[in-house]
Amino acid sequence: MLEGLLKGKVALITGAARGIGKAIAMKLASAGADIAFTDLKEDDNFKNTVEEIKALGVECRGYASNAADFEQAHTTVDQIVKDFGHIDVLVNNAGITRDGLMMRMSEQQWDSVITVNLKSAFNFTHALTPIMARQRGGSIINISSVVGVNGNAGQCNYSASKAGLIGLAKSIAKEMGSRGIRANAIAPGFIITDMTNALPEEVRQEWNKKIPLRRGGTPEDIANVALFLASDLSSYVTGQVIICDGGML
Ligand code: NAP
User: Fold this and answer.
1) What is the pLDDT of residue 18?
2) Cα 187 to ligand 1 centroid, rounded to whole Å
3) Distance of CA 47 to CAs 22, 136, 219, Å?
4) Residue 145 CB–ligand 1 contact under 6 Å
């Protein structure tokens, strides 16, 4: 049913060799988009993702690039435009956690999370908005989190970065709407990936009890929302946060 929805479009997803980013890349590819994705290193996950996406019948290239680095982000975007000609969708997905209570949090824990999660989105949005403005269209999707909306003890760095991604999307929506650029955020709840599998079993059980749908989300649950925001199905939606959390908030 959704085949061809994104035909002729090019989507760039950061941090997409695994987890939610990969699921988004696969979903957009299954709707016909050509895919450019970034990740830190060209490891087996990276190579497998390229092959799995190509098997869906679209173009795909991976770019080893640190999303937190301003210069690398700009060089990567320039290269993608050379390779693909245009970029229509940007998904700011790359993210890390370095949890700890405020009183014990090091400056390094704070800086690394803010830089990888929030500054990376600035880097790519900064590189891409002039391109999208010339194209007079584009969709920017920031992968935030429910803790960016509600906060979470032990994650002040992560929550602040995710709240920042919401502010960034809302501001870009206001600044760039007249050029046809839409910007939105997705706030996932508890999604089963390597990031959450690293949590202790009892913490994961506690999260599950708070979810009315009584299950953790899958990366595909988030990818379905990303497909909506990437495509013209959401042509009059901008500056919004879509919470996808099984009803937890
Ligand atoms: P994940 O499984 O840990 O995957 C994160 C991906 O980002 C990995 O491919 C990682 O690369 C890449 N990455 C990390 N730092 C990077 C950098 N500096 N430059 C480029 N790529 C980088 O995480 P996930 O659960 O899929 O999360 C994806 C996004 O969703 C994150 O922004 C996360 O905060 C957000 N989110 C997740 C949940 C959840 O419950 N899982 C909930 C809310 C929001 P390597 O493989 O090289 O490490």
Assistant:
1) 97
2) 14
3) 12, 33, 19
4) yes
From the list 122, 195, 193, the residue with the least C-alpha distance to 161 is 122
pLDDT tens for 144-184 read 999 999 999 999 999 999 999 999 999 999 999 999 999 99
| pTM (2 d.p.) | 0.98
Q: Which residues are catalytic?
A: 158
User: Which conformational region is residue 36 in: left (phi greater than 0), alpha (psi within -120 to 50 degrees), or beta?
Assistant: beta
**Residues constituting the chain:** 249
Rg of the chain's alpha carbons, rounded to an integer?
17
For residues 159 and 214, what is the distance between their CA atoms, to the nearest angstrom?
Answer: 23
Say yes or no to pLDDT of 36 above 80: yes
CB 161 less than 6 A from any atom of ligand 1: no
Q: What is the pLDDT of residues 57-78, one digit of tens each?
A: 999 999 999 999 999 999 999 9
Mutate to test the pocket of ligand 1, among 193, 194, 207 (most ligand atoms within 8 A of CB): 193
Q: How far apart are CA 83 and CA 126, in angstroms?
A: 19
* Start-end of H helices in the chain: 19-30, 44-54, 70-84, 107-113, 120-135, 146-150, 156-176, 194-197, 201-209, 219-230
- How far, in Å, CA of 142 to CA of 226, rounded? 9
Residue 89 has phi, psi (to 5 degrees) of -135, 130
Looking from the CA of residue 92, the nearest atom of ligand 1 is: 32
- 243, 9, 13: which is closest to 120 by C-alpha? 13
Gap between the Cα atoms of 50 and 198, Å rounded: 25
